[in-house]
Amino acid sequence: MASTSIPAAAPSFEIISSLRYDPALPNVTSHGANDESYPAPADSPYYLLSYHRDRLLNAAHHFEWDHAIDFLRQDLDRFERFLDGSIPDREKPWRLRIAVDCNGKGSVEVNPTVAIDPLNLLIPSLHRDIQPTIWKVFVDSQSIAPSGFTTHKTTARDDYTAARVRAGITSPAETSEVLVVNSDGEIMEGSITTPYFRRRIVGRETDANEAVWVTPPLKSGGNAGTSRRYALTQGFCIEQVITKADLVDGEECWLSNGVRGFIRGVVVLSR
Q1: N or C: which terminal CB in the chain sees fewer CB atoms within 10 Å?
Q2: pLDDT tens digits, residue range 112-168?
Q3: Whole-angstrom Cα distance, residue 153 to residue 225?
């Protein structure tokens, strides 16, 4: 079992969140969906902006970083202006990686990102599936220990990197994902995404037509991601424990993150 242990008294990590800047996003969130289907500000080119700020703030509270808390309490307009200074070309989409250290110093790393239909940034129930690419979804052969470094996203990501290596994923450009598992055999999350599976609701008699999309609960140890929060808030899914043994080879699933939105996937158990 792999684990990450970093002394809280002398943090050598930063809290992070990755999000998409896309000039086409406001056309979808302001006009392509109803007023309650996307969190404010709906006219921002930063995907799920308020959720990313909240995510970083929650991590700062968890690690008791007072200076970071003070920095992240700024209002959203000011936070957006902070991000604006990093965008090299406002006519193109970008992947932003926001990092905040224990002293409250924020930085933004910007890289090109793949062009996608902005509708894919909305929960799947708000649009027709128009994605040509389906990701392969593998399952890690080892387990990792849940901790504050799995619930909150930080630069201490050795466990996730190792899981990707074990799955044979060698590049972030690959259309593949690996699900990380805790010591009880429960799916925690994906290495870079939140997964969703079609399941009957535990404890309630249903037929096949009443199956719903479910995502692992935070008690399984996974990350409190922004697109996960969006999917839950909008009723796309509910939380339910999913074990490694529950997965079926070839079953379809959804994946999501703050840069690519929602992605079709298929579980691959045998290779």
Answers
A1: C
A2: 998 999 999 999 877 665 666 899 999 999 999 999 999 999 999 999 999 999 999
A3: 8
Beta bridge partners of 264: 254
Domain boundary among 89, 121, 153: 121
Task: Verify that 176 and 213 share a domain, yes or no.
Answer: yes
CATH number (domain holding residue 93): 3.30.470.10
- Which of 77, 100, 121 is the last residue in one of the domains? 121
Regarding whether 117 and 230 lie in a shared domain, the answer is no
Domain range holding 233? Answer: 125-267
Q: Whole-model pTM?
A: 0.91
The pLDDT score that the predictor gives to residue 54 is 97
Res. 262: pLDDT tops 80: yes
pLDDT of amino acid 7: 44
> How far is 179 from 197, CA to CA, in rounded Å?
12
